[in-house]
Amino acid sequence: xxxxxxxxxxxxxxxxxxxxxxxxxxxxxxxxxxxxxxxxxxxxxxxxxxxxxxxxxxxxxxxxxxxxxxxxxxxxxxxxxxxxxxxxxxxxxxxxxxxxxxxxxxxxxxxxxxxxxxxxxxxxxxxxxxxxxxxxxxxxxxxxxxxxxxxxxxxxxxxxxxxxxxxxxxxxxxxxxxxxxxxxxxxxxxxxxxxxxxxxxxxxxxxxxxxxxxxxxxxxxxxxxxxxxxxxxxxxxxxxxxxxxxxxxxxxxxxxxxxxxxxxxxxxxxxxxxxxxxxxxxxxxxxxxxxxxxxxxxxxxxxxxxxxxxxxxxxxxxxxxxxxxxxxxxxxxxxxxxxxxxxxxxxxxxxxxxxxxxxxxxxxxxxxxxxxxxxxxxxxxxxxxxxxxxxxxxxxxxxxxxxxxxxxxxxxxxxxxxxxxxxxxxxxxxxxxxxxxxxxxxxxxxxxxxxxxxxxxxxxxxxxxxxxxxxxxxxxxxxxxxxxxxxxxxxxxxxxxxxxxxxxxxxxxxxxxxxxxxxxxxxxxxxxxxxxxxxxxxxxxxxxxxxxxxxxxxxxxxxxxxxxxxxxxxxxxxxxxxxxxxxxxxxxxxxxxxxxxxxxxxxxxxxxxxxxxxxxxxxxxxxxxxxxxxxxxxxxxxxxxxxxxxxxxxxxxxxxxxxxxxxxxxxxxxxxxxxxxxxxxxxxxxxxxxxxxxxxxxxxxxxxxxxxxxxxxxxxxxxxxxxxxxxxxxxxxxxxxxxxxxxxxxxxxxxxxxxxxxxxxxxxxxxxxxxxxxxxxxxxxxxxxxxxxxxxxxxxxxxxxxxxxxxxxxxxxxxxxxxxxxxxxxxxxxxxxxxxxxxxxxxxxxxxxxxxxxxxxxxxxx
Length: 862
What we know:
Elements: H1 3-9, H2 11-14, E1 44-51, E2 54-60, E3 70-79, E4 93-97, E5 102-105, E6 115-124, E7 135-139, E8 151-156, E9 166-169, E10 181-182, H3 227-230, H4 238-243, E11 248-251, E12 257-260, E13 267-270, H5 275-279, H6 291-308, E14 313-319, H7 321-332, E15 343-349, H8 367-376, H9 386-393, E16 399-402, E17 426-429, E18 435-438, H10 466-477, E19 481-484, E20 491-495, E21 498-504, E22 515-523, E23 530-544, E24 549-554, E25 558-563, E26 566-572, E27 579-581, E28 584-586, E29 588-594, E30 599-606, E31 609-616, E32 621-622, E33 626-627, E34 638-640, E35 645-649, E36 654-659, E37 667-672, E38 677-678, E39 682-684, E40 689-695, E41 700-706, E42 711-713, E43 716-718, E44 721-726, E45 737-741, E46 746-750, E47 757-762, E48 776-781, E49 800-804, E50 811-816, E51 822-827, H11 828-831, E52 845-850, E53 856-860
Parallel strand pairs: 8-11, 8-14, 9-10, 14-15, 15-16, 48-52
Antiparallel strand pairs: 1-2, 2-5, 3-4, 3-6, 6-7, 9-13, 12-13, 17-18, 20-21, 21-22, 22-23, 23-24, 24-25, 25-26, 27-28, 29-30, 30-31, 31-32, 31-33, 34-35, 35-36, 36-37, 38-40, 39-40, 40-41, 41-44, 42-43, 45-46, 46-47, 47-48, 49-50, 50-51, 51-53
């Protein structure tokens, strides 16, 4: 059975609450004077293929057009009464040309709860037909992808869980082999979608995470164990929250599990395990499973996933004893892999180690558990503190321990890498030093008795408080540092505690013949400052911190691949001819990185026409180049890897967005912003707030839009937006280059062609409602360089970048001067704090005029 047939045939398994609330009513028949005039008959054979955030519809032309030619089709979109989405969603009626019988309705809610129904009517000059038979309701989230996912989550259940095991396809396959199950949908059960829609191997290990309510009490009128799914908001169910991100959810087996390719599709094989296996000694005090062997089993499972899905980011979420194993893998295995075996974040929810202020107390629980712990952490027997060891090891902030109210490190108040929340039970130590646990009222912001676990062995089945869920979901949606960064003549690479910068010596105009790329440390000492020679002038670079590769473009067709401080490969793009900007001309004009999918997007001239070409960095192969629909490209385009969008605001005032989910068939959407000469792009990818500064505006004007509320129809897009003027921001040539320090909601905008001013700004921390606006901003000048030379900002394609410091967690802006001889690293978080940098009477400029030396650091560039 084909892709569409399989999903439609399975609707009995995922039938949803019947739709009762229509967004709009169908058009009525148009009154017509000529009694012989007839409207068309209804379209027939409407079919639908639901997917994440969209539904593809197909239909047949009506049996008769009536007495007038068809003008269009009107598709009615009706949201279900169970929808929990606050997004405005698609229009109530979507119009399609008369010669088209298929379309994709996008911008549908992805929350594991919202469903939609559809019908289509044919419209002529006489009037509208009756609507076709409706199709739906369709769930528009949780569908397994057809290829390797962006994110896979391994769910490590706690003790004493059991699982029967089995084999299944975690992805969507068209021709499954007999005897192997398929994942129908990763969203948890709703009223009519039972857990039987999960294949063997997921029903218990993953299902258990979703079938219990958040709060200990079950609301009235709701079947026990279903409150979380049927009545609470989506963010209160961990499985739903993860599935709604598009992540593939995989179980952990305490015995053995692996992912491997097959002719029909990738297969996940999972061995069964029992209570003694998952208890690790808790439930079988004499002869329990060896946790050292179990963490090896986890490593084997991770490695099989990483080898099969090389570009997939892997997250571990472990609870109780499963959290302990996740923690142990992070400590013992992750550092041994250069690429961390694909794992980018590890969550340990109330493991026996991070659950109390001094983990050594846990070994007094029983003699057998003491022996088990002693085998793993012999140093803790004498009173060591595992929490502090973790903090010392966590250089790249990949580990997230969620503890309890008695945990001095990971319980409230917590360090700045975790929110002040408690996640399960209150561990207590009695006067004899023995550890025990008792359900207690939890501290805010978790609800009273908002336990993760059912009261079986104190904590058996996860019931995760909303704040923990939001933290995990946010981390899955986050991007590596260096992603969501615009193409620029200066970039930073954040890798653990080290921050390095790659600075092209050339540009499009004054230094169009300057060759080489300089590399310097901004934080740490991971490299020796040097200049990497290149055959031709370089104008732009972009880093992938997950692989350590940097891609740079020459002004000609050269594309340089750099690893560390070595030029490892020189490629040739499909560029030809040259295109011009206000700051010069180029063949290859810049490069933006998509670290999540390990690809780079090169802006270029295609025989004199502005366009792009995608470079697959896993194989160093180029895709087919494509021209911009708007006729221009941005000086600094940007890739949003979460939404698979290429942002390209151009000097003609058009903000073009290109959907590059399939780079071989890009889809273009244009917005004539009226904002002036847009010079570059920026986006806070955690909120979907996009920006584009307008060159030659005084004071600085910045176009700002909320992409989470965007509607994409035809060849255009709209979203709540505005052109916001920033008082007291007067930059050289106006605002031109812009960048956001991902994870901080803080950015920087600066001018070019000389000048020494910059503007730091802060953005909203949330999105999805209303018109976005820059919240605060302050403008200052950069002082002279250490050798006494006046600072002059560099030329196109803009010499600035931004990142979040791994040491201070502050936003840092990095600027390069004309000639690429100095960098200025400015702490934007401090600059925006009036208690640190005083403001003038206008409220948006430094009182002293110049960035204080305590906020800025100069770095010499070879």
